[in-house]
Amino acid sequence: MKLSKLLEMPYLHSGEYDPDRPRRMSGSARERETKFLFSIQNVEFRMVNDGLAVLGFVHEPNDRVQSYRVVFHLSFKHQLTISKFPNDINPNDVIQINSVVADADYRSSDLCATVYEHLVRAGYVLMSDESQFTPAVHLWHKLIRRNNFPVYVVDVDNGFVSKDGQPIRYDGKNIKFEDIWTSGDDLSGMYKILVMKQ
Fold first, then answer.
1. DSSP 3-state assignment of 116?
2. Whether the predicted model's global pTM rises above the 0.85 cut
3. Which of these, 27, 58, 127, 195, is most buried using a 10 Å CB contact count?
4. From 3.30.2170, 3.90.1720, 3.30.950, 1.20.950, which CATH number describes the 77-198 domain?
5. Cβ count near 111 (within 10 Å)
6. β-strand pairing of 125-127 with 94-102
């Protein structure tokens, strides 16, 4: 397999194939293994008990059991990429995106942005992955335009602050595109993380 194909593979989250993603869940398992967050557009979003994923459920009645289809899966990293946080941020409140997968009819940046904002509203500090490709560019720019919460750019090596010790707030224009977003053969923009917090 060519190296370029290997580099692309982790970021192809079409939802068509993901062996780790649950497809269905019974009503009893859903109640036992997840905690309700909110509902929107006929999708009920719930946090998995271990705190490592948010699942979106759509009820699909079945003759024998109450069945729920999992149409949205937002997974978080087991270990955070950075460890340097300002004093006002408790690392226990930080969750870092690992991947987002949604069924085709629920694949909307509006829906994903709403989930991100709900998590921040609930008190979490939300961090992106350290590599951002086209779908992530659209999603984070949408979050900035909605302007419900500030978005900061974090360097993996330096943490939350610039060289002069100040947080770097991103407005969608104040930092060069190639300095943040992963692009091109040289993967420029790698190791930059976007952070949304209250």
1. helix
2. no
3. 195
4. 3.30.950
5. 18
6. parallel
Tokens of 149: 């919460």
Calpha distance 154→151 (Å, rounded)? 10
- Lowest mean per-residue pLDDT among 15-29, 46-60, 133-147: 15-29
Residue 13: pLDDT band with limits 50, 70, 90: very low
Q: CA–CA separation, 88 vs 85, rounded Å?
A: 8
The structure tokens listed for 41 are 């557009």
What CA dihedral angle connects 10, 11, 15 and 17, to 10 degrees? -30
Q: Which are the contacts of 182, defined by CB distance < 8 A and separation ≥ 6?
A: 131, 132, 133, 188, 189, 190
* pLDDT value of residue 165: 64
Residue 60's CB is within 10 A of a number of other CB atoms, namely: 10
Domain boundaries, the chain: 21-75, 77-198
Amino acid found at 133: F
